[in-house]
Amino acid sequence: MYFISFGDWGENTGLKRMVKQLVEDKNPDAILSLGDNFYDYGVQTSFDPMWTTHYSTYFFKPFFAILGNHDHLGNIQAQIDYSHLNSLWIMPRRFYDRAYADVHLIAIDTYELAPIESMLNATAMGHDKDMTMRFINQLKGEQQLTWLEHVLKNSTSTWKIVFGHYPIYSNGPHGDTSELHKTLLPLLKKYKVHLYLSGHDHNICYKEDGVHCLVSGCGSRQSRTSIRPGFAFLPSTGVAYIRTSKELEFGFYDMNGETIMKKILSVE
Question: pTM score, two decimals?
């Protein structure tokens, strides 16, 4: 299977139009979306005008969607319910999985997995701190990490790909999400997840730490990239791609569709 993956596409910009054209030129089987689907405050209903202005006029492929921190400032149930109105939009719940013979796609919601990061982001956008923390604690009651461990433990696909909004590692302005080093990374290592895809920072980057961690957050906005030890030397702008078969190929395209990083994993 062939995927293109990017997040942070929630604003209509020239960069987003370039991403749209790249998707049309490359013609992937599906898109793995990495959250922040609608800036700055998500959508309010499943019939919000932004579904047309920001999504359905841009992308025409099966779209495995997850929530970003900006989506949590709106009505997250509206994004889940939209799955019933448009079969290309795949988000049956906040976290979900799809298992195929060669690849297991595992979509997570990092919002309550990094509560301090989420609280800081929400209050910066004008939301009340106490209300935000109550909401995060409510989400924790859904036991996402217990679900994730069960899914990973029972996965029989050749390749395991987890995708969430907050990065584990990033050399962009937000930087590493230290809370995920405690809550998420050990679980991914334990069950030998091959790729973790994320957005949040509006750049591209790659670092390997038992798991191959990619940031692909240039869906509509661009941010700077810092040079840090352990990170691949890449430009700040691009889009991730993944091909799965007997081998796992992944990397980045630049905005003209040229491959600027490619790595291939073989079955151990």
Answer: 0.97
